[in-house]
Structures are given as structure tokens and as C-alpha cells.
Amino acid sequence: MRRNGSGLTIFRFPNLSMGGRRMARAITDIDKPVPDQEEETAQAIRHMMKEAANRTEPLVKVMSILDELNRLGILDAVEGLLKNSKQIAAIGMEQMNKPGAHRMIKNGMGAVQLLTQLDPAKLGAILQGLSEGVNQAVRPEPDPKQGLWGIVQSLRKPEVRVSLSMMMGFLQGMGKGLSKKSP
């Protein structure tokens, strides 16, 4: 090392080829450290712990959900389904190939489509009336056999008139729907 007149320091490197001197040897191999299995596992655990520390709230929620699913036995059921998935799939395919299965699926889809078009409050009222009607029909003490005159007289009862009026409205609406579909 020496200083020139301008105050700059000049360094000399003995291995460089300048004026007949030798250059440094070229680097041909770079040794990259390859971690063994234990180091990789430790590094993965450190990474997981860091990520878990950054996301504690969602992890606690997921653990709570899993605990509840386990308490209800749902995790056991899912585990059983997964362990026996091949047998379950084979049974399902066997059932699908039975006669009438395709028609049943189409009918089920049609029923679901119908339910999406109905007002739940109106359907609830109709189902409540249906339940009362079934209870009345199967009561333990049957009425004596009713003749034609008894049937005509029962048409004067308000509850019978309400039911008949509802059925007539149903039949009229069904007729309108059928007339739209028919060519």
C-alpha cells in the first residue's frame, strides 16, 4: 500500500496479473450447505410456529370448531366415511344403477324446485291445516256412517267451508298452471 501525491491510497494485490504477475485462481465450485433431515424438520417447525404466532385468533377459532365437531361425533363419522370411501362409492353406484333411481333423482330435483317457489308462511298454514285434518280423520271415536244428507249439512260448518274454499282455490291455480304447460 502506498500513497500518491493526491492523497489517494493505492493498494497492491500480489495475486493479480499486472505486469507479469499471477492472477487469483477462478472459483469453479460453490459449496452450498445441504441441511440434513433434522435441520429441515427444525426449520419447518420454526416456520410453522412463526406463522401460528401471527394468526392466533383464526387458529383458536378453528380449534374450537374442531373440538365441537369432535364432541358431536361428526369427526368420527367423517373419518369413517374417508376410511370406507371405496365401499361407500361402490354402494352408491350400485344404487344409482337400479331401475327407477334416475327418475327418483329427477323427481327430487323437481320437488326442491317447487319448494323454492313456495312462500314458507303460506306453506306452513297449509301444513298446519293438513295436520289438523289428519288428526280429525283418525280420531279414536268415529262418527256414525254419514249419509248424503249429513254430508250436505256438514257443508254449512265454517271449518268445512274454509277447507273447501282453499281446495277450490288450489284446483283453480293448478288448472291455470296446467293450461300454461299444455300446447
UniProtKB/TrEMBL annotation:
Lineage of origin: Bacteria, Bacillati, Bacillota, Bacilli, Bacillales
Species name: Paenibacillus validus
Name used for this protein in its record: DUF1641 domain-containing protein
Record InterPro entries: DUF1641
Pfam hit, one: DUF1641
